[in-house]
Amino acid sequence: MKITPIGIWGGYPKANSATSSFFIEHEGFHCLIDCGSGVLSSLQNYLPLDKLDAVVISLYHADHIADVGSLQYSRLINFYLGKPAPALPIYGHIQDQENFDKLSYKEQTVGVAISEDAVTQIGPFDVSFCRTIHPVYCLAMKFSIGDHSIVLTADTEWRDELVDFARGADLLISEANLYEEHVGKAPGHMGGSEAGTLAKQAGVKSLILTHLPLHGNIEEILDAARIVFNGPTELAVVGKTYEL
Questions:
Q1: How far apart, in whole angstroms, are the C-alpha atoms of residue 153 and residue 163?
Q2: % helix, strand, coil for the chain, step of 5
Q3: Given this model, what pLDDT does residue 157 score?
Q4: Fewer CB within a 10 Å sphere, N or C end of the chain?
Q5: Closest among 179, 165, 182, 172 to 209, alpha carbons compared
C-alpha cells in the first residue's frame, strides 16, 4: 500500500501547487482522495487521469471538490475521442444531497454514497469513516488492507472519537492548518500540537501533516507536532511516496 501527496495546502493553492489531496494505490488500483483546486494538474505529474479507478471526497468545500468538474470533462473528452471507459466511481457522503448529485455526470462518473456507519470496499481497500468537527459535514477516513492502515483526518477540530478511529494506524495523515496562537480560535481545524497529540494518544507509527496554512513559517507547525509526538513526523511532500 502506497500513498502520495498531490497537494498540501488548505483553502486555496499557492502558485503552481494544489490543495490537500493524495492518491493511494495497491496492486495497480489507484484511488484519489479529494479533488480540490490544482489537484488535476498536479496529479498528472504522477499518474495519467485515465488510470484513476476511484475518487473519495471528504467534504464539499471548494478546496476539496473544485477540480471534480474538470475530471469529469477529461473523461467526456476521451469518450468523444473514441476512448470510452467505465463510469468512474466518486465516493461522497449524502448529507449534502445537492453536491452529492453533482458527483454523477453523464455516463462518465457516478456518485457512490459513503457513511460513518459502514465500511465500504473500494478496490482492494476496506475504507471506514468517522465524522469530524467542521463547519460542514466532513468524514475522516481509514484505508485498511489486512493489519495495515492509513488514516486521514480530513478537515477537523480536535475530536476525541478520532483517537480510537486512528488507533494503531501505520500512518496518520492529519490536517494542521493552525499555528499555535490560533488553536481553539478558528473553527474546524487543528494545530500541529493537536495533530501530535492525536498521533501520540492513538499510538500510530508515523505522522504526516497536511492542509497547511499559506501564511507564516510552516516549520513552526512541524515543530509543535514533534514536541508532543516522538514518532517519525514530517510535513507532507508533494510527489513523495510513502509505502507500508
A1: 10
A2: 25, 30, 45
A3: 97
A4: C
A5: 172
Residue from 165, 167, 170 nearest 145 by CA: 170
| CA–CA distance, 148 with 150 (Å, rounded to integer) | 7
Q: How far apart are CA 100 and CA 90, in angstroms?
A: 9
The predicted model scores a pTM of 0.97
Q: In 3-state terms, what secondary structure has residue 69?
A: helix
Q: What's the CA gap between 220 and 225, in Å, rounded?
A: 9
156 neighbors 163 (Cβ within 8 angstroms) = no
In the 8-state DSSP scheme, what is residue 186? S
Distance CA 233, CA 174 (A): 11
Evaluate the CA torsion angle 185, 186, 189, 191 in order and state its sign. Answer: negative
The string of pLDDT tens digits covering residues 79-130 is 999 999 999 999 999 999 999 999 999 999 999 999 999 999 999 999 999 9
Q: What are phi and psi of 106, to 5 degrees?
A: 45, -135
- The residue with cell 488514516 is 151
| Residues composing the chain | 244
Helix (H, G, I), strand (E, B) or coil at 178: strand
According to CATH, what is the number of the domain 2-243? 3.60.15.10
Q: How confident is the model at residue 2 (pLDDT cuts 50, 70, 90)?
A: very high
- In the structure, what pLDDT confidence band is assigned to residue 139 with cuts at 50, 70 and 90? very high
Phi–psi pair at 176, nearest 5 degrees: -150, 70
- DSSP classification of residue 66: T
Tens digit of pLDDT for each residue in 154-178?
A: 999 999 999 999 999 999 999 999 9
